[in-house]
Amino acid sequence: MRIVDGAGVWTQPPAGVANDWVEHLRVPDLSVGTYCIPAGGLDDQRPHTEDEIYVVTAGRARIVTPDGTAEVGPGSVIFVPAGEEHRFDEVTEDLSLLVVFAPAYGSRSAVRPTGSDRG
């Protein structure tokens, strides 16, 4: 067992950075991290090579995918399949997301992304 401290907790992105991604746990079959976007901020992520689940722990925004859009807030759980375009926009309150990747983030890509590639 392991308690994953800090997962899903809001963190202000560093100065000059649009958002913040921190990976808290990584094993071959999954990874867990926190993705934070400040109110009015930019979500500049690109599709991932792994399936992904977001759990909104704080804030409000809209998620946009090719299939449509949805308003999300605390308690919302969002599944995004590998390769699907998606982004959060209209971030009206500081947005904190607990993120679970399966398998682990970047494990299916030729080059493991860095934190700045996560977005």
TrEMBL record:
Residues 35-101 form the Cupin type-2 domain. It comes from the Bacteria. Transmembrane segments: none annotated. It holds the Pfam family Cupin_2. Gene3D superfamilies: Jelly Rolls. This is Cupin domain-containing protein.
